[in-house]
């Protein structure tokens, strides 16, 4: 099994009550999912430097595939009243190990043997982080093209966005079936 790192987007910043449920939920007991709790008063969000970070869960999940990992967390998030997953994304900054996982190749050897491999990004502290976009572009130039965004991530993100759009929508079951969706 592999460990998959991604950011799950949720429909709202966690309230203090939701954070309490999260902190006591067995599904999150291993610490593989974390959140940033904002001010108790939503009116104080204007003082938060990055409000979008309050709607993100940082995930490091062991699963057979990225799609399985996202589905596991999205299902667990539903255990918290009023919270649901609405999208997912990969961050551009990655370690070489994360980049190797994304492209299915051992990159530390490539970095040493082939000229032009992108260097670590500046100012990232003790751990070396690389731009995934730059690595994907470099791989494409060497004839080993990999998608910048893996298909599992696209599928998970689109499915979560569709589920969010359908949340509370009055779409007739026949229309859903015509679109190739289950009529539930």
The percent range for helix content is: 25-40%
Strand content: 15-25%
Tell me the total number of β-strands. 6
From the N-terminal CA to the C-terminal CA, the straight-line distance is: 32 Å
How many separate helices? 7
Topology, pairings included?
Layout: E1 2-10, H1 16-23, E2 33-35, E3 56-63, H2 66-77, E4 85-89, E5 93-94, H3 96-103, H4 107-113, E6 130-131, H5 132-141, H6 151-166, H7 173-178
Antiparallel strand pairs: 1-3, 1-4, 2-3, 5-6
Helix pairs in contact: 2-6
Can you offer a commentary on this structure?
The chain is α+β, with helices and mostly antiparallel strands and 184 residues long. The chain is 36% helix and 16% strand. It is built from 7 helices and 6 strands; from the N terminus they run βαββαββααβααα. A 4-stranded antiparallel sheet has the order 2-3-1-4, covered by helices on one side. The protein has a two-stranded antiparallel sheet with strand order 5-6. α2 (66-77) packs parallel to α6. The longest helix is centred in the last third of the chain and has 16 residues, at 151-166. The mean pLDDT is 88.
